[in-house]
Fold these 2 entries.
Entry 1:
Amino acid sequence: MIPLFKVAMNPEAEKAVANVLNSGFIGQGSVNEAFETKLKERYKNNNLVTVNSGTSALQLALRLVKDKHPEKKYIITTPLTCTATNWAILAAGFEIIWADIDENDLNINIVDVYMNKLRTDVAAVMVVHWGGYPVDLNKLKRLQEHFKFEIIEDCAHAFGSFYDNTMIGNSGNYCAFSFQAIKLLYRDWETDRKSTRLNSSHEFVSRMPSSA
């Protein structure tokens, strides 16, 4: 592999990691709780938990969707994304319906979703805010009112983005932000975190923070 660049590190990172490793709390603990608290303050939303990986976060959302719509077996999704987005769909036992891409912003093409892909047995539409450019959530929600599906937002590119004067992540949908190295919330140490906003299902999710 040819390294293109080195991720910048805070000079205090090494000491902070050592403190965590010596605390006896590797997965949970006070640092994790402080991180969640900061995110809740930023989003002014208490329905937020952190889990061990992006894949787990998406699988949690999909499990909640399956519990809500056990009779439905399809997820409409975008092919233009990291494979983890769509592997989570298969791992949850759903089948994929591929939607086309909007050539103007590279997000999922909502017209194609409406005209060609939506059906009564679709449990959810999964979107990725490509490059931080938000999907037209208002259009998608109008379809949701009629077809009764859930919306899952992979917000890996969109930390700090806004849609309709609202922070991405506060739309009322299932939303996930990535803490992977090349995302906006990049990692300062060899630990992955993914913060997942999961509506009224927060109590259920908080009981299973490392589920995959």
Entry 2:
Amino acid sequence: MDPLQRFAAYAADFEKTFEDDEWIRLEGYFAEDAIYTVKGTPFDCEVRGRDAIFRAIKKSIDGFDRRFDKREIEPDGPPVVEGNRVTFSGSGRYEKQGVDTLTIQLSETAELDEEGLIVGLIDVYTAGRTRCSAGSSATARSSMRPTSEGRRCAGVRPMPLPEGTGTSGGDSGRSEPQRFC
């Protein structure tokens, strides 16, 4: 099976799953012993096994993506295919009323086996390429700490994001990153 066509089908079905939470739709895309790796964040991790991967991704999108009013994924260009690996690079734009718009740079690489199943999925978040709009000049550091101006930009705060403020509470505005792995 063509890796690019398979990855495109997976990506389209992932977006449907994002909307309706029907994770069973994605089972046919992953090997049972697949490995999911997250890099470039305070919550870097590795998850082993299809079911554990789905739980981890669901926890992540429930704790972050779904807390925003709007989420848009924009490719930087066409995916790159190298043998049985497909790499997508792009950005996610997140909007929520009352907080600055957040843009996160991401690269996702899927490694497929000879049957077209994903055996490895790696998400890499690019440090320093996360930004907030609406006048905030902040760029996210690898620690994802609050901006020096004290602005409440949803993306430069550790997860989870409670409704509205982009902080997990407390007087200091600091919290530990959410662990989904």
